[in-house]
Amino acid sequence: MYESLEVSQYTDEELIDYSVALALGVAPPSGDQGHGSSAETDDPYDGSAPPEESSRDTVFTLTHQDDLIEEADNFLDRGKHNLAILPYATWVEHWINRIILMRSIGEGTPQELATALIRSCRLELKFGRVWTSLGMPRFDKDLVRRVTRLMEARNGFVHYKWPQHDQDAFDEDGEETKKKAHEAKETVGHLITLEDKVFYGGRTESLKRCIREKCIERQRAARMLEESEEPNS
To answer: What is the pTM for the complete model shown?
Structure first.
């Protein structure tokens, strides 16, 4: 979203307003990309192109990433390590697909083409040439290896590719699965940190708080308006 902006130069309010403008397909004013505009006018995009001239369809897809992490953590806490690996792996796939989709559309790629790219590419390409071709920094090799191990563990469980073990080996394999599940949780954390650093300058949480506060503020204002318009009893 903020590819054309130096995030550190803007307040949270300005970044949120800019995001809303992008989501609505309203081009920001020419020149300063909106920097400082919120302090100068009630509408930071006053004078921008009208929506009908610059808008494009924007589709939002729920990836349930927070739910996936919650379910995975619950399984991990209960010692169900194979079951924890499944939602962690699904989260990683949704994470990479979401970013590639947003980045591609942001660069002008039609959504249908971006979606086809995601569906046709192997995961190693998404974390490799597809990722860097969209202007993002190359993945750390250790992080890619972590993702690969996670996917292999997931595929082994989903496709029933368990080796035959005697009891001692089975216990040892159980400990190995436990390690993989805990590593999967760490891998998810690394990816969250990477997204925060690359796209939001380490300000994801402050931006989330700003969004929540803005929503609450607007809801409160709407209620006050409704109450003021009610006829006196």
So the answer is: 0.68
